[in-house]
Amino acid sequence: MSKTTLAIIAGASAAAGSAATAAILASRSQRKESPTATLSTDPVPTPASPPSPVPAPLPIPLRKDLSPPVNPTGVFQYGFPGPINDLRPNISTTSAFDRRTRNPYWVAEHITQASLCANNADRRHSYFVEDETVPEKFRAKLHDYFRSGYDRGHQVPAADAKWSQDAMDQTFLLTNMCPQVGEGFNRDYWAHFEDFCRRLTNHYPSVRIITGPLYLPRRDARDGKWRVSYEVIGNPPNVAVPTHFYKVIFAEDGKTGGDVSLGAFVLPNAKIDNEKPLTSFEVPVEAIERASGLEFASKLPMQRRKKLCEQVTCSLLVRDYADRQRNLAGSAPPRRVQSPVGSSR
User: Fold this and answer.
1) What whole-number distance in Å separates Cα of residue 198 and Cα of residue 331?
2) Are 98 and 85 in contact (CB under 8 A)?
3) Helical residues (DSSP H) of the chain, grouped into ranges
4) Is 125 part of the annotated catalytic residue set?
5) pLDDT tens, 80-121?
6) Residue 222: exposed, middle, or buried by beta-carbon count in 10 A (0-12, 13-18, 19+)?
7) Which one from 110, 143, 154, 203 is the annotated catalytic residue?
């Protein structure tokens, strides 16, 4: 994935999503055409001037009798510096926590029609709590969010874990949270996106989703250089405010070794107009991997992969926030529709 692709994603905003998608697709097509361009522009060697052979590198001689005078790993006697990823498997989520940013690297979930239809939990009985499995000096605290101007944004939504009160309670751990813009994002476009993921279970028997934060560079208007800059909240400042969020979706056909419809999306942590097409934020999964340093589908063969938005219509069904909260245990009435999720074939 080129630096240009990541730059485009970093610059994506609610006002420029469609243009970013078009540019990403254009860059991908350019990469496909690059071998032809290379063949047409590379000089062709002639028999009269063959290229000079490149000498093989000389091996570095190793002395078996060499005894190093130092032992760098001896520092481990005092403790292993890290990094340490706090892996947190729960009944409703599995996550890896980033101690530096006090946010998760990623949070994974699994939803089915059966899991979503069960109504055995009530959000009013769940409370935001600090995750005591993370050492105290590294964990996000409740007071870090107090008057910060940001929501405690679920990575796995509570509405995806209604099948058990314990399952829903675990979605309120701060290791499942990141600071998110509230009005216009967490309570609006992001929530509609989560609903889109749930509606995929109408077409697929099994849907797996990985969600997490990104900290993407932006070009500085003063000197044209790219820099990563993000706010940090808390007292003292501890919790990083992501610039973007991603979701990687695996919609499974339910067959052993069957097809998997793969979708990847990157959204800015900012107010987004609800009329903005979801496809404006669709990106190659490789772009998220390069930006996050993570790998999501290394064991999924290309022949089993389908493009999610070529199998279903990727669009939002917009619901009012107040209605969603009142009807978390049931189905909130729809208000405005981009277009229904359905087969595009």
Assistant:
1) 12
2) yes
3) 3-10, 17-41, 113-117, 165-170, 189-199, 285-292, 308-311, 321-326
4) no
5) 999 888 999 999 999 999 999 999 999 999 999 999 999 999
6) exposed
7) 154
